[in-house]
User: Fold this.
Amino acid sequence: MNVLVTGGCGFIGSNLVRYLRRERPEWTVVNLDLLTYAGNLENLSDLEGDPRHVFVRGDISDRSLVEPLLSTHAIDAVLHLAAESHVDRSILGPEVFITTNVLGTQRLLEACRAQRVKRFVMVSTDEVYGSLGPTGAFTESSPLQPSSPYSASKTSSDLVALAYHHTFGMDVVVTRCSNNYGRYQFPEKLIPLMVVNALHDKPLPVYGDGANVRDWLHVEDHCQALLRALEQGRAGEVYNIGGGAERRNIDIVKAILGLVGKPESLIQYVKDRPGHDRRYAIDPSKIRAELGWTPAHTFEQALAETVRWYVDHPTWWTRVMSGEYLRYFETQYRGRLQGRA
Ligand code: NAD
Ligand code: TDX
Assistant:
């Protein structure tokens, strides 16, 4: 079996490429990634020289690249992860989110249709459902009410993928996962950002009152769910993926400070994210019942291991945070810290 992973040099993509090489060693994994600020070949340095991991630098939107790639490598299935993935960036500059996530996904689908790819797994997100009140959880039939330009672009691409199933008969499976954590996550997202700031004794910017809730899932559990969706998912179906680990942001930040031995005085409550979703929670009954998937990691233990990994890999995050990210960090957080809530 030959699979194409798009965005395989990003956080989840690199963990997925490694997971597939380990769990399905006979497969060839072709990794198409543009290497934006979020994509790093260093995330896969341990696979250097592996003949069954083929890296191709390129844009999912470039059909003149993608179609020959699909045919040359006789791609059977695509796991589509490439995207602009950060909500705050989508507020600062929405356009690339529409270009990559919506148009890029449609072009990729079209290339796959032309090349008769047998299965297309669309990696979507729980953010398509919008925000929850204090109780309840998203099911696959919850209304789609995205709040941010990021989540609106993901909702659009998720629906375009389903439209390719309904209209053209393509074999498409959509997954909607909750917040991931683990190694190789770019330090713009909550957990690695807080670790890196704490290690530098910099302020930890908590948006609003810090009581927003996310449902956390270890990235390897997500990878396992994606493999199940690829191998056993039913065409045209949507599968929610979630870990049942709802936590308030402020509790995670305090836990991280405890793990790295830094004082809570580093916490700074800052102006809230515009349109900030209050709470996410996933009902994973469908994927449990149909695909037999359950997460293997428990949050507190896996969070401690994750934090340890960032503490032990300063070279990794120093490198990925250099250049463009540093300029972004300066513009975004200087403003926020001044306008503290
Ligand atoms: P990431 O930002 O770490 O990685 C995205 C990757 O896509 C990068 O390697 C980047 O270089 C690549 N990329 C961007 N534009 C591209 C283009 N035009 N062509 C080719 N490659 C391109 O993102 P992530 O957190 O690993 O998320 C991966 C996917 O999973 C995304 O689709 C995201 O929406 C979805 N998702 C993420 C989470 C989460 O918690 N991180 C949760 C649910 C779903
Ligand atoms: O500095 C911060 N301070 C803060 O309070 C950052 C970066 C985040 N937050 C809050 C905002 C959210 O409530 O922490 C929570 C998590 O924020 P992010 O890590 O930016 O993730 P989120 O916005 O929830 O989106 C993530 O989960 C769903 C991923 O980035 C998406 O790609 C995925 O689809």
Q: What stands out?
A: Residues 337-341 have pLDDT under 50 and may be disordered. The two ends are 53 Å apart (CA to CA). The pocket of nicotinamide-adenine-dinucleotide (ligand 1) is lined by residues 6-7, 9-13, 32-36, 38-39, 59-61, 81-83, 85, 100, 104, 123, 125, 154, 177, 179-180, 186 (CB under 6 Å).
